[in-house]
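User: I'm curious what two different proteins look like when written out as structure tokens. Can you demonstrate?

Assistant: Sure. I'll show them one after the other, since each token string lines up with its own sequence. Here's the first protein:
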Amino acid sequence: MARASETAVDIVRGIGPGGFDGHTPCPELKVGALLNHLIFFTGVRGHAAGLKQSQAPNDVAEGHDFTAEPDWAEAYAARSAATAAVWSAPEAWAGETALTGSGRMPARFIGGIVLGEWLLHGWDLAMATGQKLNVDDELAAALYEDIAGKAEMARQYGVFGPEVGVPPTASLFDRALGLAGRDPSWKRS
């Protein structure tokens, strides 16, 4: 989880405020909105979920503009690292927890969502801002395994788009992107 967090943080640090209006592979979200989504779910809700808290003290609401805060990227780096530290403990993966407050689910399922938030939205933001997301083979395998187990359900709930065909010879990370409804060859406009 720490490596996934660091991977996303590297991309976030490379985004300047002038790029907030750029398009992303998530058609409904521009860069600024996607940044706020990533910060909320991997820096606020993901942290509380790993601690098995329904709401953290001083929790902010979804839709909060983290990028309007001073030193927002470094504040996110600290929040993301704290979330990774919580999810690095075996007890975070045991039992049940909630990410959104709309019901408890197995902690393993929620932990996989947090992993996907860092890596999938990290990739979305990297592509939208002309950066490269560096995902090692171990992270790619963990992401692929998680996505393969929940892709159909995620599509039913509108979390993932339709599967994008990716050649079987493509990297495991590109195949994970395709399962999650992302086109690995997406280019910013």
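Here's a second, unrelated protein for contrast:
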Amino acid sequence: MSPPEHEMPLMEHLGELRRRIIYVLIVFVLALVGGLFAAGSVYDWLIRSGSAQAFQLNAFSFWDGIGIYMKIAMIIGIAVALPFACYQLWKFVSPGLRPQERSATLRYVPYVLLLFMIGAAFAYFIIFPMAIQFTSSVTKSMGLQETYGIAQYFTFMFNIVLPVALLFELPLLIMFLTGIRVLTPMRLRKWRKISYFLLVFVAVVITPPDFISDFLVAIPLLVLYEASVYLSSVVYRRQLRAQEEREAQLRNFS
């Protein structure tokens, strides 16, 4: 007995999703390999700039150097693969979109890398130095000698930089979900209190436990959310106008 007809589109849909995921993984692996070649230059820049100059970093394991190169390559791989992953997501959902919605949502893809880099720069040049300064001051106040491993330094840095860089994708994500009619600005306004709480919680988790650091990180995240609500309203109004134009054309033809 052949399977029911309504199950065939679902299986094809899952097959298409699997194919898109494989494409993304291939690009990520290629970017990871390329990132290994660039890791040395990135490492030299990170060591010469910023907070690293204040410490004598040490290797406590034979694998520390390789581990740092792999982490740097991973960040590069994520940065390169992220726009491609968003494009594959667009390709996956685009058959269910109207032509106007396809072209509108496709425009978001080039900005994915830009926002990722802005978020990474904000985290590295503003949040990370504050975190280093706070933890170092606490260590010195306890009379402890600061001896840090290179792996611990970079792990601490990446644990701050990567989440913030990804959070800066929030406006594009909201616009995309509005464009495919998953979210509406009314729903985002209804969820404002819960969203504020979650964003402040994230800010507290990724920053040192002092009010100033929490405040300096939480405020940009809340601004990002409000910008996302505004951009969602813009997309939603365009959808309504496009729908009204289609209905007017149908009335004229009838």
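A detail about the second structure: The CA atoms of residues 39 and 69 lie 6 Å apart.
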